[in-house]
Amino acid sequence: MKFGILVSEGPYTHQAADSAYLFTKAALEKGHEIYRIFFYHDGVNNGTRLTTPPQDERHIVNRWSELAEKHKLDLVVCVAAAQRRGIADAEEAKRNGKDGDNLAPGFRISGLGQLVEAGIQCERLVTFGD
Amino acid sequence: MSEEMMEEGGGGVIKKFCYINRKAPYGTIYALESLEVVLIGAAFEQDVSVVFADDGIYQLTKGQDTAGIEMKNFSPTYRALEMYDVEKLYVEKESLEERGMTADDLIVPVEVLSSAQLQDLMEDQDVVLSF
């Protein structure tokens, strides 16, 4: 089955980010297709490479990046939600006159249309949120 | 809408999209960012329904004044939904009653549905996004 995934909560604060990852991993292992993972609301915080959890804790951001690289996943961070929360790639940072960027490898920043389009293209759009 | 967007949007596929708003407008950002999805989504020309339930019905209350909390009052935007061809707005009857409200307290015309009727409506959708 072709799945789209929506992640609506931030890492470490809420289990949604973990559940989304574990669901995605399990679905891929079962041979399903993950068309896109869209990060919205505080979910955009899953995409900052500045995340530095204690070493004996899971690294939620790196975990996404690694999974994306292994399975060529499309990890999309909502641009409007990202701007509010200070998540930027190099291009966005430059456009907004910021002195740094923080988007993690494997993620890209794009618009909300990508969420709606995933809803149209996928057989199931699964939300992980509050 | 450009041809490119049409293609990106799914090549003429029309699905039933249902947005469910359950939270009060200003205590958290969900209501505002839900509205942003509805507005952007309108460009994809899908069959859209927007549901308000629980504290989500407060998003539609008349006379919102946000000056004291330094937030933008975005409630007028709900009145603009019609211009985006988002015309199916539903409010849960039980949520209104529990809060001592009627449809007259709301800034836009809505259809009031019982919890059971909303259940049927949701059953009928292709994509349900809950905020």
Strand arrangement within the widest β-sheet of chain A reads: 4-3-2-1-5
Oligomeric state of the chains present here: heterodimer
The average pLDDT value of chain A, as a whole number, equals 98
What is the CATH homologous superfamily assignment of chain B?
DsrEFH-like
What is the H level of CATH, i.e. the homologous superfamily of chain A?
A: DsrEFH-like
Cα-atom Rg of chain A, whole angstroms? 14 Å
Spans where pLDDT lies below 50 across 5 or more residues of chain A: none
Task: Report, as a whole number of angstroms, the end-to-end distance of chain B.
Answer: 27 Å
* H and E order of chain B: HEHEHEHEHE
**Percentage of residues in strands of chain A:** 15-25%
CATH topology of chain B: Hypothetical Protein Ychn, Chain: A
Q: How many strands, what sense, and barrel or not for the largest sheet of chain B?
A: 5 strands, parallel
Biggest β-sheet strands, sense, barrel of chain A: 5 strands, parallel
CATH architecture of chain B: 3-Layer(aba) Sandwich
Radius of gyration of chain B: 15 Å
Kindly report the CATH topology of chain A. Answer: Hypothetical Protein Ychn, Chain: A
Q: Helicity of chain B, in percent?
A: 25-40%
